[in-house]
Every structure is written in C-alpha cells, then in structure tokens.
Amino acid sequence: MTIPDDRDIQGIDWRSKLTPEQYRVLREGGTEPAWTGPLNSNKAQGDYVCAGCGAPLFRSDDKYDSGSGWPSFTAPMGGEAVDEHHDVSHGMTRTEVKCAKCEGHLGHVFPDGPGFKGLRYCINSASLDFTADEAGADRANSDSDGGGD
Ligand SMILES: [Zn+2]
Fold first, then answer.
1. In whole angstroms, what is the distance from residue 74 CA to residue 61 CA?
2. Catalytic residue numbers, as ranges
3. With contact defined as beta carbons under 8 Å apart, do 70 and 124 qualify?
4. How far away, in angstroms, is 118 Cα from ligand 1 center?
5. How many CB atoms lie within 10 A of CB 117?
6. What is the pLDDT of residue 142?
7. What is the pTM of this model?
8. Ligand 1 centre distance from Cα of residue 55 (Å)
9. What are residue 110's phi and psi, to 5 degrees?
10. How far does the centroid of ligand 1 lie from the alpha carbon of residue 63, in Å?
11. Tens-place pLDDT, residues 97-136
12. Distance 147 CA to ligand 1 centre (A)
C-alpha cells in the first residue's frame, strides 16, 4: 500500500501536461460531450488509467456499453482507485468520481447500472488513457454478446 507523494502531484504543471480538454475535465470538473471520447467504443482488453497521473482506475472486464455516449464501468479497479464525493452542483444530487491519487475529476456514478451492485460509473474519455494488455496475455476470452435489451 503506497501513499502517493502529494508534493509530486501538486507540483505538476497540469496545463502543460494535459490537453485543454483533459484539463477542463480532470482539473475543472468538466464533462466532455457524449459520443466524442475515443474510448467510449473501445473494446480491447486492458487497463484504463488516469490521464493525469497514470494510476490504474478501471479494467476492461468491467466496461460495458451503457448507450450513454461515455465509457461506462460497473466497478472501479480495487477499492482505493477512485474517491467518491457527494456532488450537489448543477441542481442535481450526484456522486462524483475522482482519481484517488491526483484528485482528477473522472465522472459520476449512478445507481442504474447492471451487475450485482447496480452501479454505472460514467467516466469521461478525456480522463482516461488506455493501456492494452500485452500480446500473449490472453485472458479468458469469453465475449458474451449480451445482446438484447
Ligand atoms: Zn490521477
């Protein structure tokens, strides 16, 4: 269990490290327009990491097609990858999801997802980088084509 060095994170020049869109989402809590993120339709096996600090956040196995236009997950990777905060901005009560390491804004979690927890982590593509699994590390390729709604 490693505690990130806050000084490292806080010393980062986010404006030069991130694209303007990433900065707007991660550091200013913005939301990208639906269907614009390159990772929304990504179905490759691998890890979704924080675009700000590189911390692993979500796993491709937990990604599903919610039809919302944003990458959606049923659960984050492990219990400490993300922080969840009560968010009452914009006249709505939502739960904001942040990177636990750099506190970058990722998206929101809604109670309308599939799976046994019934959660939908609705995450901005701009907040994420994708690291594909290495060739050969072929995990159980059970592509259950859920079909139908
Ligand atoms: Zn981060």
1. 9
2. 122
3. yes
4. 25
5. 11
6. 46
7. 0.82
8. 6
9. -120, 150
10. 19
11. 999 999 999 999 999 999 889 999 999 999 999 999 987 5
12. 34
Q: Residue 8: enclosing H or E segment and its boundaries?
A: helix 6-10
| Domain locations in the chain as residue ranges | 37-132
Which DSSP letter does residue 51 get?
T
Report helix, strand or coil for 7. Answer: helix
End-to-end CA distance of the chain: 40
Beta strands across the sheet bearing 120-123: 63-64, 72-73, 120-123, 105-110, 94-99, 82-87
Q: How far apart are CA 50 and CA 77, in angstroms?
A: 12
Tell me what pLDDT residue 78 has.
84
CATH of 37-132, one of 3.40.50.960, 3.90.226.10, 3.30.930.10, 2.170.150.20: 2.170.150.20
What is the per-residue DSSP string for 75-117?
S-SSSSSEEEEEE-GGG--EEEEEETTT--EEEEEES--STTT
Q: Is the pLDDT of residue 16 over 70?
A: yes
Give the tokens for residue 47.
Answer: 């890890």
Q: What are the backbone dihedrals phi and psi of residue 7, each rounded to the nearest 5 degrees, phi first?
A: -65, -35
